[in-house]
């Protein structure tokens, strides 16, 4: 069996696993070096648009996530229009939202939406999406809004798109309101997201 065919079969049958020679960033689970927590008071984020992948192709996304009635809510959809393995043609559609975290880095307040999802390439996975609403308009050659996505299963993790400026679209962080209450007590980062976000960038 040729090596490329073997790699393809492993990806299909084992989901996110160690693919020798593939341009993937895999890491074992580790504690976060940045302090991430459920915002207090909580809020919610909406957004849609596209980023340019490392191979120069479009990757589109649409999302909503946050706190509501002492829990988490939302939906995330992501489509990579790149044709290059291992992520070419990847479609991620969330099935549940398990966390909504804030991390403050360099004076900016990022929001991470975490949950479970189905994918067309790797089967069921955990996901972590990083967003930043950093002004209006939200997209252009220098953003300023940002988006990134990471996937994981029980054995491996992979950064699909490191956090980067939006080439089109917008991220909107909405102010708290009486309905945007999170769980009490809030979950820790690993319980909420099943992975660290340190390798996603900011």
Note the main attributes of this structure.
202 residues, mainly beta, nine-stranded antiparallel β-sheet, 8% helix, globular, disordered N terminus
Describe, in short, the structure shown.
Helix content is 8%, strand content 44%. The chain has 202 residues and is mainly beta. It has one domain.
Structure overview:
- The chain is mostly beta strands and 202 residues long.
- It has one domain.
- Helices cover 8% and strands 44% of the residues.
- It has two helices and nine strands.
- Strands 8-7-6-5-4-3-2-1-9 form a nine-stranded antiparallel β-sheet.
- Strand 2 and strand 3 form a beta hairpin.
- The protein starts with a helix and ends in a 9-residue tail after the last helix.
- The N terminus is likely disordered.
Q: What shape does the CA trace take?
A: globular
Broad structural category: mainly beta
Give the spatial strand order of the biggest sheet: 8-7-6-5-4-3-2-1-9
Strand count, sense and barrel status of the largest sheet are: 9 strands, antiparallel
Tell me the layout of helices and strands:
Layout: H1 3-14, E1 44-52, E2 58-67, E3 72-80, E4 91-105, E5 108-119, E6 123-132, E7 146-152, E8 157-165, E9 168-174, H2 189-193
Antiparallel strand pairs: 1-2, 1-9, 2-3, 3-4, 4-5, 5-6, 6-7, 7-8
